[in-house]
Each structure stands twice: as structure tokens, then as C-alpha cells.
Amino acid sequence: VYAGRSDELSLVTTMPALARAARTAHTLVGAVRAAQAAAPRAPGAPVFGTLAGGLSTLVDAAERAGGATVRRDATVRELHRTATGWRLTVGSTRDAAHVEADAVLLAVPARPAARLLAGPAPVVAETVGVLDYASVALVTMALPEPELPELSGFLVPAGEGLLIKASTFFTTKWGHLRRPDGLALVRASVGRYGDETALQLTDDDLATTVHRELSKVLGTPLPAPVAGHVQRWGGALPQYAPGHLDRVAAARAALRADHPTLALAGAGYDGVGIPVCVRSGETAAEEIITALGGSAA
Ligand SMILES: Cc1cc2nc3c(=O)[nH]c(=O)nc-3n(C[C@H](O)[C@H](O)[C@H](O)COP(=O)(O)OP(=O)(O)OC[C@H]3O[C@@H](n4cnc5c(N)ncnc54)[C@H](O)[C@@H]3O)c2cc1C
After folding, report:
1. 177-194: per-residue pLDDT in tens?
2. Which ligand 1 atom is nearest residue 231's CA?
3. What is the pLDDT, as a whole number, of residue 294?
4. What is the distance, to the nearest Å, from the Cα of residue 213 to the centroid of all Cα atoms in its chain?
5. Which residues does the chain have with pLDDT short of 70?
6. Coil, helix or strand for 227?
7. CATH code for the domain defined by 133-239
8. What is the pLDDT of residue 92?
9. Domain 72-131+240-291: what homologous superfamily?
10. Which of 60, 248, 277, 280 to mutate for ligand 1's pocket (most ligand atoms within 8 Å of CB)?
11. pLDDT of residue 296
């Protein structure tokens, strides 16, 4: 999930429920059981959830529901404090524009956040900039009637010596993607934190290697794909090292004290799952509204 090494990741950030349970349970199995018991799933409720039209529809829905003006492809390059709020420098150096704002919520990954914070809050910038990221590539293939186990997918431990680190059988995992003609969509992810050699392969070589490794893991030669897609995500998966939550708390406390109308939200701070990111954004927005003297209700 994190494309990282479990012994280098903060338990309390990556698995907060397990970390809570581990404070009283004496074994790992006991802690897992206690965490599961503390959050029981309704019988028959699905393990996974998604949006039928794809996750990008979430962005469009948020835009519509919020009634906000959304500017895409507008990189913020600088952030300056003004007498009344903030000035953002947006766009390329040749075609820069300024945006004046009462408040700023930085919902960008840690590296761009650190660059933007370097002017107004250099110590916070340094704290935020500690977070490192893993890069991954996703190889998706459409396979005509492959023999797949009735699973949503599988994870591959680093010690197996394979390039693939996980695979998802889309057409098994998501009922709405099942096709009457038996065409299966299978996706594999490649790339682990600290070992990016796999990502230097060309798209074609990645697809060939993934196809070969999947056949090996599944113990059956997979049919040749009728279509494929390679998507690269550079620096996309945060590697929350131990102490991450303390660093985030310190960064937020410093901002609250010196710049209450500047807040941080998103996966760089509160966790990687989309529900956590949404909650993180809502909490930060409420703080900013309060700082501006409004009511978050
Ligand atoms: C391959 C992959 C699969 C995943 N699968 C799942 C999953 O199944 N379920 C799940 O819950 N989570 C999943 N995640 C995690 C989840 O998608 C992310 O943690 C989440 O999208 C992070 O949201 P965010 O808003 O914090 O950051 P992002 O989604 O990274 O958004 C940050 C935005 O800031 C923009 N930006 C950066 N710098 C600037 C700048 N200077 N100026 C303006 N804009 C800027 C970026 O372009 C980007 O649009 C997955 C992640 C990856 C990489």
C-alpha cells in the first residue's frame, strides 16, 4: 500500500487502529483481533468502496457542491504574507499572475508545501520537508478470459525478488466492472521506496515483465493482453517515518501561533487514504474559518 518498508514506517500514522490496540494487547495477533473487534463490519457489507464513474468524479462533485471557482493547471510558485492576508504567485515565470487571498490552505504534497512555506514559515518548511515519497508505476492490462482466482488481488513481499509489489483484479474486485465477454482488467504496481530501478524500464518492458511475473505468481500462463496502459506516479506515496505525527503537530502549532490563516491538509500530514484526506481538508477549512472570525457550522 505504501510501497515502503514496514519497519521504517510509523505504525501510529499508517495503522492508527492497530497502534491503539497494541497499547493494551500483548501480541500482534491479539492487537489485530482487538482492532477488528473495535470496528466491526456489518455482516455482508463490502470490504472496499469506490465511485462507479472513477475516482476523478469525486473532484468534479466537490467542485459542484462547493460552488467554488477552481483553477486547474495553476502551479502556485510563491506565497507571501501581506498586510491583510496572502499573495500567491501563480503560473509560469514568464506568465506569472498574483492572487490575493484572506487565507490559504496548503493541500499539496510535502515538497511543494515546504517550498511555499520557506518564505513565511521557514522552520515549518523544514519540518514539513522531512517527509519523503516513493514512486510507483501502474500497469493495467485487458486480458481475454484469463484464469484468475476469486480474489480482489494480492500483495507481494519485497523478499520474493519480483518487480510487481501488488496486483488488483479489477473485474473481480468491482462488480460494476465485470463484463459479459469475460474480458478481465488486471492491474499491477511496480516500484518500492529506495529501489526505483524498475521504474527506469520503458512502458513496453514494464508491461512485458508484469505479464510474465503475474503468470508465474498465478501458476498459469496468462493470455496476451488485448489492451494495456502504463501510468507513472512520481513521488506519490508518502513514507511516514516514526515521529511523523509529532512533526505535523509541531508544524501546525507553529502555523496556528504565527499564521492562523495558513493551514496544511492532505496525505502529506494526516494519512494516505482518501477518506482521511477529505477529513483532513474539512478540519483545516474549519480552523481557517474560525481564524477568520466565521462559523464553521
Ligand atoms: C497509485 C495510487 C493508488 C492509490 N489508491 C488508493 C486507493 O485505492 N484508496 C485510497 O483511499 N487512496 C489511494 N491512494 C492514495 C490517495 O490517492 C492519496 O493519498 C490522495 O489522493 C492524496 O490526496 P491529497 O489531496 O492530499 O494530494 P494529491 O491528490 O496529491 O493532490 C495534491 C494536488 O496538489 C497539486 N499541486 C502540487 N504542487 C502544487 C503547487 N505548487 N501549486 C498548485 N497545485 C499543486 C497537485 O497537482 C495535486 O493535484 C492511492 C495513491 C496512489 C499514488
Report:
1. 999 999 999 999 999 998
2. 1
3. 78
4. 25
5. 295-297
6. strand
7. 3.90.660.20
8. 86
9. FAD/NAD(P)-binding domain (3.50.50.60)
10. 277
11. 58
